[in-house]
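Human: Respectfully, please carefully check these tokens:
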Amino acid sequence: MAIKKHEIGNRAAETTTAFNPVVGAQFSELIKSAAHVAGQATRHPFTVGRHIFGFLHNSSRIIRGKSDLHPNPRDRRFTDPTWTSNRFYRHMLQFWMAARASVTECIEDFDLDRTDQARTALLVDIVVDTLAPTNTLLGNPAALKRFYETGGASLVRGLRNAYDDFISGSGLPAQVDSRNFEVGNNLASTEGAVVFRNDMLELIQYTPLTEKVHAIPLLIIPPQINKFYVLDLTADKSMIRYLVSQGYRVFCISWFNPGPAQESWDLERYVKAVIKASDVVRDITRQRKLNVMGACSGGITISTTMSHLAAVGDDRINSCTLLVCLLDPKPDDTEIGALMTDASVEYARNKSAKKGVLSGKELAKTFAWMRPNDLIWNYFVNNYLMGDYPPAFDVLHWNDDSTNLSAAVHSDFLDFFVDSPFAHPGTQKFMGQPLDLSRVKQDIFISSGITDHITPWRACYRSVGLFGGDVTFIVSSSGHIQSLINPPGNPKSRYRTSSVKTTDPTEWMDRSEEHTGTWWSLWSDWLGERSGAMRNAPRTLGNAKYPPLDKAPGLYVFG
């Protein structure tokens, strides 16, 4: 049975290049850990021998038809009935599973530290997934059936797809069929205009869709590593369009995609750019205050901004929303975090410093090899062995449309993940002022995703104790990106809330209440209470000082 395209896309959509520690693992360090494992094997021959004997025992049971090894029902590589009905394929699968189990269990029995364990597990996953029988034509019954049914045409199409990927220079199978997506047409199509532009950003103001609007505007700060239109995908999935339809005056930053010439752009420069954008928003709306929302690294940027503003006595921020954002990271929070060492951090820092940027395309490759089955071999089978195009999935088109990080801000983010300054208030200074979120007294709304492995909800929950104001925390029933793209009308949407005040995320979850529907509606009610009175919607965008320059989504989104 072939894997359905929407299943391929949904799994890949939860492993995007959305901001993470952005360190990755050096290949040389993986080899070093592998050498360490080899050394352990020579020092513990009886351990190795025990697992070899176990593999031979399992092999004997497989040959005699006595093995009960079977794949995880969720592993869609082996859903074709041939894997159970055909003895040859059943034995092939069981030998592969027995070998994988023996290697994994043997490594777990070695005396390895946390970093070597994580690196070795990653290396084993890469090798084992690469050697999966489904990655060959003869070892994939679904691909063989397709070959027979099409008279070989599927293989011809697969070779053509492989050639196209080779010509593109990506080095990996394509994850998305982008032919039907066009930014400004069916993506990022909410009506508006660029009302301010400098070298770092464009500020987009969106056209009201209601006769009355809230007085206090909302400024959205997207992550620097991705383009802003994940918040303005297709019309039925656009968070920005939803907010405008609810009577909010919405402004959004679109960051310039930096190249080597912008290598010196650091976090301080980004914070100053956010402050300038907020000045423009207040000027256009004639409001002293504004609400802000930051996603992923945009949340780190706006939190740093709010700490600075609180330190200098500037109360322009009325409330803040943080979406899938880590403010107090720990090494064990994520798979990449488990690979972080002083050496890997410095390697990542030096690599981007040499090039002037951290390339979004290179970061995507790092993430792909972190989850090779979901992000490489699924597409290898679909595109090359089955001869299909990859799914036409809007989120994956956005993810493929990646940007760079300037070397300086990459270095600042690395320091942030190593030092976790918000968890140690007052110990570090930024723009001459101590970083301390406890001085931020505004109301905060924080969203997270229950299956998010990039910014896990438990790690996001630690942010609750950092702020000095009232914090509302919710957990959506999906992962990193799908928890953001949560429009009304999805019958599967759920979210959890709790009124309990605790530092323990487990206690919070145990005492939480599940709600049906999208958390957007709860957030809209929360935001409405903090957005002032309703007034007539403006008939034009911008003002005399900041007139409209270009239609939304602007120019920088195409860079």
